[in-house]
Design goal:
It contains 2 helices and 6 strands, in the order H-E-E-E-H-E-E-E. It is α+β, with helices and mostly antiparallel strands and 115 residues long.
């Protein structure tokens, strides 16, 4: 499963504070959350051609903007590494954010993954 490969690539970052979808209550910072954002399948005139591409969003959360940017760079490097499970076909840095209720800065990447 691609989720296991994603967890393996990101697991050592942020002191191991890497969570699918939502971080648990009281999770420390910096931390990473990731979410599968959908799958695109390839089609030709005769139907599905057997190809798939998954979209993954990875959010880097930190107390300062600089920490979030640095963690975002580590995420990019980890995802770009060749390895088992998938390859990255496309990467896009999304708009940075600040959540006033949690007082955390966020840097996000969206990756297109190919099995």
């Amino acid at each position: 499963m691609i989720e296991i490969a994603i967890a393996a690539r990101l697991g050592a970052l942020a002191g191991g504070r890497v969570y699918p979808e939502i971080a648990p209550e009281g999770a420390g910072t910096p931390r990473i959350t990731w979410l599968g954002a959908g799958t695109v399948t390839g089609w030709v005139l005769s139907g599905w051609d057997g190809s798939e591409q998954a979209t993954l969003q990875v959010d880097c959360w930190a107390d300062t903007k600089l920490q979030a940017i640095e963690l975002g760079g580590q995420v990019f490097e980890a995802m770009a590494e060749p390895g088992p499970g998938f390859t990255v076909g496309h990467a896009q840095r999304l708009a940075d954010d600040y959540e006033s209720d949690t007082r955390l800065h966020r840097v996000s990447w969206e990756f297109t993954l190919q099995p």
